[in-house]
Amino acid sequence: MALRCLLKSPTTSSYISKICGFRMHGTKAVASVVEEHVSAMLRSERMKSMLMWTGTTSDSVLYQQITCSPPKVVEKETSNKVALAGLIEGMKAYRGEDGRVLMFRPELNAMRMKNGAERMCMHSPSVQQFMEGVKQTVLANKRWVPPPGKGSLYLRPLLFGSGASLGVSAASEYTFVVFGSPVQNYFKEGTAALNLYVEEVIPRAYIGGTGAVKAISNYGPVLDAMRSAKARGFSDVLYLDAETKKNIEEVSAANIFLVKGNTIVTPATNGTILRGIIRESVIEIALDLGYKVEERVVPVEEMKEAEEVFCTGTAAGIASVGSITFQNIRTEYKVGDGLVTQQLRSILVGIQNEFSRFFFIKSIRSSSTGSAIEKMFKAISSLRKSLVLPLHSNIRTLQTFSKYNAQAASALREKPLYQDDEYADVDWDNLGFGLTPADYMYVMKCSKDGEFTQGELSRFGNIQLSPSAGTKAYRKENGKLLLFRPDHNAVRMQLGAERMLIPSPSVDQFVDAVKQTAYANKRWVPPSGKGSLYIRPLLMGSGPILGLGPSPEYTFIVYASPVGNYFKEGIAALNLYVEEEYVRAAPGGAGGVKSITNYAPVLKALSRAKSRGFSDVLYLDSVKKKYLEEASSCNVFVVKGRTISTPATNGTILEGVTRKSVMEIASDQGYEVVEKSVHVDEVMEADEVFCTGTAVGVAPVGTITYQDKRVEYETGDESVCQKLRSVLVGIQTGSIEDTKGWVTCIN
Fold it and tell me: Which domain of life is it from (predicted)?
């Protein structure tokens, strides 16, 4: 299973970092009897070896081949944990004119994280625990909050799975972290107007996916479109809906609004659009000022008729849009003082910073009537009470917040955790939007019982993680270690890395790493017929970054674990459920590569299906919901007579190495193999159905349930599935001669 996290490995530098790309692969090493001696590093009773490269990139070589330091086998720290899924939040702390530190609607961030966690099958802190962690982080880093008008302390609450898990499943442990960095403008244009480009190929989200929650799975796939747009001089990308490609949705990390006359329009949050906190606040302010606000489907053609366009987000604030380019036609919009955008921005910034009455009068006098001023002050007075939370540096004040704060206050009195300087040594006038780590972060853990322990502050630094997940190796009778088509895994990782804007190791580096890891861990290969050694090559961003963009550093790791059968049924037939609400991937997304973005979103559907007694979920296409795609982590085949059909790899389906091998074997045995769009009705009339994948091998399907109709299929020794499986396993284990050059022997 993919390692889903937003943190750095402890083997790299000490910064917490956002992983903007993630690639993983599974290959099978087939082993027999191993040599009696083992290396000194394997003498422990636990498997401890893995291979790792760390490479760095600069702006000039960011998208070139990764330059890696020499590979090294490292000891796997037993205290490390695995991250399985990730949710992020973004929020800001401001300094008021009186020196107080202010938070803007933090309870909404807390509730949004809880909603996202429920969608991703994760445990989450309570609203009170979330706010407590944020408050303590802000107070401990108060000197990093910029002076009024110079920026803000950007806070990153982060929830990720940190408990080890091998298959596609929820984590056994979760960690909640809050850290901060002083920032100024998100866009390089500063407060100047943005120039957007409408993306027609790559969507940001799709119905049934996770577009409405702040999950890392929403960000990696958009990096390619962003890079391409910025290379052509645009500020950011405006995405269209995945289904019709005719309606606007969001910018990469911000909501969008169109203004025409007294009407302000924004796309409705229908499951594909994030309900931004700044978005909700701007809507409230606009309504208080007497504007008509419409949340609805917004056709892309409507942009041509708008007078103003602006974006909103925690990082972006309220940013004016100067132009939008769609199908090579550039439309320009009004910008500057005296417009709706500036009026809304002035009020929002004023509420966030508690600026004086003079500020508002001055900001609107040249463009607004007296009645507008009155409306503005009414909006400010009513909204400030509910939107802004003051945080005081007086330690005793902490005791009024909660029992957690009382304990924190005691700890602070005994041993001061933050410095007394009013401001950190920062050039506030030249502050950008990059990672400048503040002094402290807040960490809180949750076990599988769902209860978070009390969190605590610690110095900003790395959190120990290990990459525990999977790939396979078998023990042969002839004493050799064999790998099954590792070069195909290497090429697939390279193609996926290109899609996710990640430099990748060469094919030779990849295969050599897998060989070294398999050989170093050969004593962990189970006896023949007792299981396999699962090997997981993993490529992840490991460099520090705060905003949305490629990582400045990447790490390639290979590790292994002995495993049995992937499904609890063992070699028994599977019972699948056809999912109609949630989808796995969409055209233009990353469904065709082996990325973490494909796995976290399926946990909800998978958990629900298993609770009803099914083995796994069979997903349909995201557009028509009528054509088969994949199961949660494997390809699917349909047998009717002498014809074997499988969904074509059209960008939403992973081109599995086992899938490709089974197709070749079936063709050799005289079957007609067809790659096409497979209608769900065709599946319900099939003779046999089976799944393929590195983890599952070739697994027969006994039943499929679709719209409460259950269909049974042929299984057993004489089935097509079993015949294909026997040949594949024979080649992998060396009991059948490899005439295709698929097997690599490890000396």
Answer: Eukaryota
